[in-house]
Amino acid sequence: MRVVVVNGSPSRPSKTMGLVDVVLDTLKGMLPIETSRIDVYRLGAGFTGAIERDDVPPDVESALRLAEDAGLLIAAAPVFRGSYPGMFKHFFDLVDQYALAGKPVLLAATGGGDHHALVLEHAMRPLFGFFQALTVPVAIFASAGDFDGTVLLNPRVYGRVQTGLTDVADLLRARATRAAGAHPPHSNN
Questions:
Q1: What whole-number distance in Å separates Cα of residue 168 and Cα of residue 187?
Q2: Which domains does the chain have, with CATH numbers?
Q3: What does the angle CA 7 – CA 96 – CA 10 come to, to the nearest 5 degrees?
Q4: Where would I find the NADPH-dependent FMN reductase-like domain in this sequence (predicted)?
Q5: What pLDDT score does 182 carry?
Q6: Which helix (H) or strand (E) holds 20?
Q7: What is the model's pTM?
Q8: How far apart are CA 76 and CA 106, in angstroms?
Protein backbone atom coordinates (compact mmCIF):
# COMPACT_ATOMS: atom_id res chain seq x y z
CA MET A 1 0.00 0.00 0.00
CA ARG A 2 1.29 3.43 -0.95
CA VAL A 3 1.16 5.80 2.04
CA VAL A 4 1.75 9.46 1.28
CA VAL A 5 2.42 12.01 4.00
CA VAL A 6 1.62 15.64 3.32
CA ASN A 7 3.76 17.46 5.87
CA GLY A 8 2.58 20.98 6.65
CA SER A 9 5.41 21.88 9.03
CA PRO A 10 7.92 24.55 8.04
CA SER A 11 10.43 23.20 10.59
CA ARG A 12 13.05 20.60 9.83
CA PRO A 13 13.25 18.45 11.88
CA SER A 14 9.79 18.86 13.38
CA LYS A 15 7.58 17.48 16.12
CA THR A 16 4.92 16.94 13.45
CA MET A 17 7.17 14.55 11.54
CA GLY A 18 8.25 12.97 14.84
CA LEU A 19 4.59 12.09 15.40
CA VAL A 20 4.21 10.87 11.80
CA ASP A 21 7.28 8.65 12.19
CA VAL A 22 5.54 6.89 15.10
CA VAL A 23 2.41 6.47 12.96
CA LEU A 24 4.42 5.03 10.06
CA ASP A 25 6.43 2.68 12.30
CA THR A 26 3.21 1.38 13.87
CA LEU A 27 1.54 0.99 10.49
CA LYS A 28 4.57 -0.91 9.12
CA GLY A 29 4.00 -3.46 11.89
CA MET A 30 0.45 -4.03 10.61
CA LEU A 31 0.68 -3.82 6.82
CA PRO A 32 3.26 -3.86 4.06
CA ILE A 33 3.56 -0.21 3.05
CA GLU A 34 5.64 2.03 0.84
CA THR A 35 5.92 5.61 2.01
CA SER A 36 6.44 8.96 0.32
CA ARG A 37 6.55 12.41 1.88
CA ILE A 38 5.60 15.78 0.50
CA ASP A 39 7.04 18.74 2.44
CA VAL A 40 4.83 21.62 1.33
CA TYR A 41 7.30 24.23 2.59
CA ARG A 42 10.01 22.74 0.32
CA LEU A 43 8.01 22.84 -2.92
CA GLY A 44 9.43 26.24 -3.91
CA ALA A 45 8.32 29.36 -5.70
CA GLY A 46 6.49 27.46 -8.46
CA PHE A 47 4.18 26.16 -5.73
CA THR A 48 3.82 29.26 -3.60
CA GLY A 49 3.13 31.48 -6.62
CA ALA A 50 0.58 29.15 -8.22
CA ILE A 51 -2.98 30.34 -8.21
CA GLU A 52 -4.41 27.45 -10.21
CA ARG A 53 -3.33 23.88 -10.93
CA ASP A 54 -2.41 24.85 -14.49
CA ASP A 55 0.19 27.26 -13.05
CA VAL A 56 2.32 24.65 -11.26
CA PRO A 57 5.66 23.37 -12.58
CA PRO A 58 6.14 19.62 -13.30
CA ASP A 59 7.69 18.79 -9.89
CA VAL A 60 4.71 20.29 -8.05
CA GLU A 61 2.30 18.51 -10.42
CA SER A 62 4.07 15.25 -9.53
CA ALA A 63 3.65 15.97 -5.80
CA LEU A 64 -0.06 16.71 -6.27
CA ARG A 65 -0.57 13.48 -8.25
CA LEU A 66 1.36 11.52 -5.62
CA ALA A 67 -1.07 12.73 -2.94
CA GLU A 68 -4.10 12.12 -5.16
CA ASP A 69 -2.99 8.56 -5.99
CA ALA A 70 -2.14 7.50 -2.41
CA GLY A 71 -3.66 4.37 -0.94
CA LEU A 72 -3.64 6.16 2.42
CA LEU A 73 -3.00 9.87 2.83
CA ILE A 74 -1.59 11.14 6.11
CA ALA A 75 -2.31 14.84 6.47
CA ALA A 76 -0.02 16.21 9.17
CA ALA A 77 0.37 19.79 10.32
CA PRO A 78 1.38 21.86 13.31
CA VAL A 79 -1.15 24.30 14.75
CA PHE A 80 -0.48 27.96 14.05
CA ARG A 81 -2.89 30.52 15.48
CA GLY A 82 -5.68 28.01 15.90
CA SER A 83 -5.47 26.27 12.53
CA TYR A 84 -3.19 24.55 10.03
CA PRO A 85 -0.54 26.62 8.22
CA GLY A 86 -1.42 28.46 5.02
CA MET A 87 1.02 26.48 2.84
CA PHE A 88 -0.65 23.24 3.97
CA LYS A 89 -4.04 24.63 2.89
CA HIS A 90 -2.56 25.99 -0.34
CA PHE A 91 -1.41 22.49 -1.28
CA PHE A 92 -4.95 21.17 -0.92
CA ASP A 93 -6.33 24.19 -2.78
CA LEU A 94 -4.48 22.77 -5.80
CA VAL A 95 -5.62 19.15 -5.36
CA ASP A 96 -8.38 18.07 -7.74
CA GLN A 97 -11.77 18.42 -6.05
CA TYR A 98 -12.73 14.76 -6.61
CA ALA A 99 -9.32 13.07 -6.38
CA LEU A 100 -9.66 12.29 -2.67
CA ALA A 101 -13.28 11.07 -2.74
CA GLY A 102 -13.49 7.85 -0.72
CA LYS A 103 -9.73 7.88 -0.02
CA PRO A 104 -8.66 7.01 3.53
CA VAL A 105 -7.06 10.02 5.22
CA LEU A 106 -5.43 9.96 8.64
CA LEU A 107 -5.29 13.32 10.38
CA ALA A 108 -2.34 14.19 12.61
CA ALA A 109 -1.40 17.45 14.28
CA THR A 110 0.95 18.90 16.86
CA GLY A 111 0.57 22.03 18.93
CA GLY A 112 1.77 23.93 21.95
CA GLY A 113 -0.86 22.51 24.31
CA ASP A 114 -3.82 20.15 24.47
CA HIS A 115 -6.29 22.92 23.60
CA HIS A 116 -4.80 22.92 20.09
CA ALA A 117 -6.16 19.40 19.54
CA LEU A 118 -9.44 20.95 18.40
CA VAL A 119 -7.77 21.75 15.06
CA LEU A 120 -8.30 18.13 14.08
CA GLU A 121 -12.09 18.29 14.36
CA HIS A 122 -12.76 21.96 13.63
CA ALA A 123 -10.32 22.66 10.79
CA MET A 124 -8.75 19.53 9.31
CA ARG A 125 -11.73 17.16 9.26
CA PRO A 126 -13.98 19.74 7.51
CA LEU A 127 -11.25 20.37 4.92
CA PHE A 128 -11.21 16.69 3.96
CA GLY A 129 -14.99 16.51 4.25
CA PHE A 130 -15.09 18.96 1.35
CA PHE A 131 -13.09 16.44 -0.70
CA GLN A 132 -15.47 13.63 0.38
CA ALA A 133 -12.45 11.78 1.74
CA LEU A 134 -12.84 8.91 4.17
CA THR A 135 -11.19 10.43 7.23
CA VAL A 136 -10.07 7.89 9.79
CA PRO A 137 -12.27 8.17 12.91
CA VAL A 138 -9.36 8.49 15.37
CA ALA A 139 -7.27 11.57 14.65
CA ILE A 140 -3.90 11.88 16.39
CA PHE A 141 -2.62 14.89 18.28
CA ALA A 142 0.50 15.47 20.35
CA SER A 143 1.39 18.60 22.29
CA ALA A 144 4.84 20.10 22.77
CA GLY A 145 5.10 18.53 26.24
CA ASP A 146 4.80 15.04 24.70
CA PHE A 147 8.21 15.37 23.03
CA ASP A 148 11.89 15.58 23.85
CA GLY A 149 12.99 17.63 20.86
CA THR A 150 11.27 15.79 18.00
CA VAL A 151 11.12 12.40 19.75
CA LEU A 152 7.64 11.45 20.98
CA LEU A 153 7.77 10.24 24.58
CA ASN A 154 4.17 10.15 25.81
CA PRO A 155 2.83 6.56 26.02
CA ARG A 156 -0.75 7.89 25.87
CA VAL A 157 -0.10 9.23 22.38
CA TYR A 158 1.50 5.94 21.33
CA GLY A 159 -1.67 4.22 22.57
CA ARG A 160 -3.85 6.56 20.52
CA VAL A 161 -1.77 5.82 17.42
CA GLN A 162 -2.15 2.07 18.04
CA THR A 163 -5.91 2.40 18.61
CA GLY A 164 -6.45 4.59 15.56
CA LEU A 165 -4.54 2.30 13.24
CA THR A 166 -6.00 -0.91 14.68
CA ASP A 167 -9.48 0.51 14.05
CA VAL A 168 -8.77 0.97 10.36
CA ALA A 169 -6.22 -1.79 9.62
CA ASP A 170 -8.90 -4.13 8.26
CA LEU A 171 -10.24 -1.39 5.99
CA LEU A 172 -6.74 -0.62 4.71
CA ARG A 173 -5.98 -4.32 4.15
CA ALA A 174 -9.22 -4.76 2.22
CA ARG A 175 -8.49 -1.71 0.06
CA ALA A 176 -4.94 -2.92 -0.62
CA THR A 177 -6.20 -6.39 -1.55
CA ARG A 178 -8.91 -4.94 -3.77
CA ALA A 179 -6.37 -2.65 -5.48
CA ALA A 180 -4.03 -5.58 -6.08
CA GLY A 181 -6.93 -7.63 -7.46
CA ALA A 182 -7.96 -4.85 -9.82
CA HIS A 183 -5.11 -5.86 -12.10
CA PRO A 184 -5.01 -9.66 -11.97
CA PRO A 185 -2.08 -11.33 -13.65
CA HIS A 186 -2.64 -12.40 -17.23
CA SER A 187 -3.66 -16.02 -17.57
CA ASN A 188 -2.98 -18.29 -20.51
CA ASN A 189 -6.20 -20.25 -19.95
A1: 33
A2: 2-180 (3.40.50.360)
A3: 20
A4: 1-144
A5: 64
A6: helix 15-28
A7: 0.92
A8: 8
What's the rounded Cα separation, in Å, for the pair 43 and 53? 14
Task: Return the pLDDT at 187.
Answer: 40
Which residue type sits at 70? A
Helix (H, G, I), strand (E, B) or coil at 92: helix
Provide φ and ψ at 89, rounded to 5°: -65, -40
According to DSSP, the residues that pair with 141 across neighbouring strands are 109
Alpha helices in 42-186 (DSSP H): 45-48, 58-68, 86-94, 118-119, 125-130, 155-181
Count of beta carbons in the 10 Å neighbourhood of residue 136: 23
Rounded alpha-carbon distances, angstroms, from residue 38 to 20, 116, 167: 12, 23, 25
**142 residue type, one letter:** A
- Picking from 84, 88, 108, the residue whose alpha carbon sits closest to that of residue 38 is 88
Q: Tell me which residue of 169, 140, 138 sits closest to 154, measured CA to CA.
A: 140
**pLDDT tens by residue, 56-75:** 999 999 999 999 999 999 99
- For the chain, the maximum distance between any two Cα atoms, rounded to a whole number of angstroms, is 62
The pLDDT mean for the chain works out to 93
Which H helix or E strand runs over 25? Answer: helix 15-28
CA-to-CA dists, residue 4 to 82, 113, 188, angstroms: 25, 27, 36
Helix ranges, 69-154 (H): 86-94, 118-119, 125-130
